[in-house]
Design goal:
Elements lengths: L17 H13 L7 H7 L5 H6 L18
GO molecular function: hydrolase activity
Keywords: Hydrolase
Pfam families: HAD_2
Length: 73
């Protein structure tokens, strides 16, 4: 069998992986008592690579110190 074509889904048209990405971030951040909302994700992280998101991590604003949550990993 010869492959005649390949489909790349780089913009989420065929598979919406953004909600999966949000759920992963939300679950990881919840382990550190950080409430990560869909609104926050949509405004600041959706459509960006994981590397860019790690460079702009959410802050724990309700904490006595504003450490980046991702620095815990």
């Amino acid at each position: 069998m010869q492959i005649k074509s390949i489909i790349f889904d780089l913009d989420g048209l065929l598979i919406n992986s953004e909600i999966v990405s949000f759920e992963i971030y939300k679950e990881l951040l919840a382990q550190h008592q950080h409430n990560f909302t869909l609104e926050n994700y949509a405004q600041n992280y959706s459509g960006r690579s994981s590397i860019l998101n790690m460079e702009n991590p959410p802050k724990k604003t309700d904490s006595e110190n504003s450490k980046s949550v991702f620095l815990l990993y």
